Amino acid sequence: MRKFNIRKVLDGLTAANTAAPTQPPAARDTESIPESLQSEHFQLCKTVRHGFPYQPSALAFDPLQKLLAVGTQSGALRLFGRPGVECHCQHETSAAVLQIQFLINEGALVSALADDSIHLWNLRQKRPAVLHSLKFNRERITFCHLPFQSKWLYVGTERGNIHIVNVETFSLSGYTIMWNKAIELSSKAHPGPVVHISDNPADESKLMIGFESGIVVLWDLKSKKADYRYTHDEAIHSISWHHEGKQFICSHSDGSLTIWNIKNPAKPAQTIIPHGKQPKDGKKPDPCKPILKVEYKTIREGEPFIVLSGGLPYDTVGRRPCLTVMHGKSTAVLEMDFPIVDFLTLCQTPYPNDFQEPYAVVVLLEKDLVVIDLTQNGYPVFENPYPLTLHESPVTCCEYCADCPVDLVPALYGAGLRQKRQGYSKKEWPISGGNWGQGTQTYPEIIITGHADGSVKFWDASAIMLQVLYKLKTAKVFEKRSNSKDEKASTEMTDEDPFAIQLISWCPESRVLCVAGVSAHILIYRFSKQEIVTEVLQWPCGHVCLLSVSEINLLINVSLTRVRSSSLKQSAGYQVELVVQLLWVGGDPPQPISTMSVNSAYGLVTFGNSSGVAVVDYLQKTLLLNVSATELYSPSEQRQPRSPRKNRGKILQTHKCNGLTTSDERCKSPTSVCVLSNGCVICLCLSLTVLLSVCPSRAAVPAENRDGAFTRSRSSSVTSIERDVREAITALSFCYTFSRKADGALAPCMWVGTSLGTVLTIALSLPPAGEQRQLQPATASPCGTLMRMKGSILRMGFLDAGGCFLSPPYEPWNEPNTSDDQERERGRRRRAVWAGQGEGQFAVLCSDKEAKVLALPTQVCVSKHSITETSFLLRADIVQMGAGVCVACFCANGHIMTLSLPGLRPLLDVNYLPLTDMRIARTFSFSNLGQAMYLSSPTEIQRLTYSQEVCESLQEMLAELFIPIETPEAPNRGFFKGFFGGAAQSLDREELFGESGAGKASRSLAQHIPGQGSVEGMKGAASGVVGELARARLALDERGQKLSEVEEKTAAMMASADAFSKHAHEMMLKYKDKKWYQF
């Protein structure tokens, strides 16, 4: 039986009593609209992380797999291969990564953390996982070393001891090198922590141990004693071997390098101070800063390379960090933009006993990754193909656009080609490991980031990759800031980044871009493939304030960002067309812009803040509407402020640049319209600042005290009153719908949402498209309140009568700088997205507390859902999935939710991420087809999906990190070197370190923790042929396990049957010879 609906009866009675000649169409009830989206269509999971690893701390490289690993201070690992091959891993703890060691060509790595734990990662699966962990209980880890083709890991500690770990089983060996036996009587004091461990390239049985105090020990692993001890006065930071194993080099804390012969421990063979000044009188040179790391690499033809970081003189104040490359008699000092964290020299061979043949140096900086080409003169850098410039300037806002037009990415890429720098190395990027995923994505994705320096970057985010397409610099429109005395006051009022991007509104179909800055300025850009030179014209449009006409001369207008007065050369790409500035009034800054929207079909841009809303016609360069939030209400529903000011009369004047005139027709275009030629940038100067200070009546203020009347009271009581009264604009949306309840036809309008939960409408009257659109004025008229909701309005959208999403009308992109008159004057076209315009619509309204669906034009609420009572929403978007439309929400308590449309049924509710930083709230963005993103750290973007379809195909889309590669043969040392004992000595580490030879280690020294990587890795690798084998192996394992269980049960049953048979036989023998009367 169908449920009785009282709303339909009321709607029918209302429609029957309406005196209008045309009946407004009503949308169908939500119960009669089938909703195809169900809970099984949603699943939340992380997809990929882009950007530079935040706060890096460690670096490693696999020379055969060509993979680079970066560890961070938060316990994260980032793996880089060829462009497009990236992977993010996270330890269970957030302890800093101290060191990373690859198991070269084995598809695994070992990480050592600051919490004294080491972990073995499996890289043979698309999502690496930890196989084993070992937690040291009594000693702090300081250094680790894993020899090539060895399964025994040397672990140095803060106490000066060295322990040995089997990386296959992650068990400790009983073989331990104690610090007191290593130094014996060579030093009376403790040598300090272990800062270096390495084996002799020519003899694996000789282990080099470097202590922080300056003592170096060459330890014989077989005889378990020290062969040589080398002592230096200065502390040691790093050690590097010559490939022949006869020499090694040390870097010290006084900026010196010492080269030692292994058989001459008395003194160093050579001492070098790369950046020290050599005094003429033979005195000791002045000390320099510590050399933190040095590497000694040889080549077959020529002098060896010595690469080091640090060592600069102390008197070089303000000099940037440097990497020094010493090759023969030449010394190159390469300045870096940020402090150096670590560096590695990339060599041709993985064998330490062969000529290294270095070809590049990877330098890990605090905020960048630089790769230097050692094979070309001047040491040029390679062009970095990774999206590591995301934080080039701090990210202030983000927008995510999935399923955008297919021609947009090539257009932006073509414009960005002209912005690429020159002077890079001509060789290919040396980090080329891994393979791209096999999955394909049929739709393009674009991420837009706004930055603190006023730049806007467009990124191609298709197929879980990220590549910069185009960079727009909005600061070019403004004059450079000077430090003159005239601007000193205004400079003190602003932040350090006056051009920082605060909001982005983008129409991908028409390629119209609108950005708002923190200095309350708005810029409208249009895309062009031609380069132009434009003239900048200033056009003051009006100031809005609560002042009488007699006091206009007391206004103080301060502009923090002045538009340049000279001509502006604009390259192909986005070219500015209009600049709107909100001026300072009475010494008070304008309120920041809280929301903004642009529509290319209407040629309008609207923006609002806590003072009101404005609508600008960027085609005619005129101001259509400029009112406060309270003036949007009709007189019958005007909200009275709950404050002592409610009885005061407010006079809202608009004064123009050509004289002080009062205007009550703020909904119309200004009377003086300036018709401008193409190729001019217009600057509209207006102010939405509303002075709400509590002060006596203007007529009662003496002339000598008028300056004090403009001073706003900062008392706590007045501040609370202002907070209670002010109603901010929080959401704006252009639409083609019913602006009033009695409307029978669709018309252009704009919906406004406020911080008090009110939804209001503004009717737009636009001239016909074409030449008349440029000449006839457009108007905007407030229509009053539509709906009131709980909380602040976040998002507004529209559905047709069938429940399909209605995108705002737009104009298809066409070249704005074409010389063809017919092409330029072509009529503006609206997109026909509504099949039946007379069938009614649904309006979807979402606040930070609840969501509602209204039937239009009746304005009857057909669905309502209370999203949260204890928290509030940070972001809400109406998104299109493959099977329908839904509302995606991100709550401050960390929950991600989706609601069906138009029924508002809960489909997904996952506790994903609690709000720990406002950066997440500022950058979280939903997009179509189940995509979302946010800024997980100041330098990284985290992408996620809430679509079950994407989650299922994600495994195929992820990149392969490990590729089976044959290990090259060991170098041939030659007959004579082998005959005379020059060949490398082999070492049976298994016999030396195994349980049979070294015994068991103390159980209290370290605790073994098994990882989840083995089984999860097999399940995660279930893709392609390898996946089928993995599935078959899992199936066989499960079948074998079940068979073993059946076999055990069968054996138990057989044992039970045997016992029963034996017991029955005993009973039979017991009572066999007894008579019946004996029982």
Automatic annotation (TrEMBL):
WD repeat residues: 229-270
A single BP term in Gene Ontology: exocytosis
Record CDD domains: R-SNARE_STXBP5 (cd15893)
One GO term describing the cellular component: plasma membrane
Alphabetized GO MF terms: GTPase activator activity; myosin II binding; syntaxin binding
InterPro entries in UniProt: Lethal2_giant, LLGL2, V_SNARE_CC, WD40/YVTN_repeat-like_dom_sf, WD40_repeat_dom_sf, WD40_rpt
Keywords associated with the record: Cell membrane, Coiled coil, Cytoplasm, Exocytosis, Membrane, Protein transport, Repeat, Transport, WD repeat
Keyword Repeat recorded: yes
Gene3D superfamilies assigned to the protein according to its UniProt record, in alphabetical order: 1.20.5.110, YVTN repeat-like/Quinoprotein amine dehydrogenase
Domain V-SNARE coiled-coil homology: 1014-1074
UniProt subcellular location: Cell membrane; Cytoplasm
Transmembrane segments: none
Topology within the bilayer: Peripheral membrane protein
Keyword set includes Transcription regulation: no
Family: Belongs to the WD repeat L(2)GL family.
Protein name: Syntaxin-binding protein 5-like
Organism whose genome encodes this protein: Denticeps clupeoides (denticle herring)
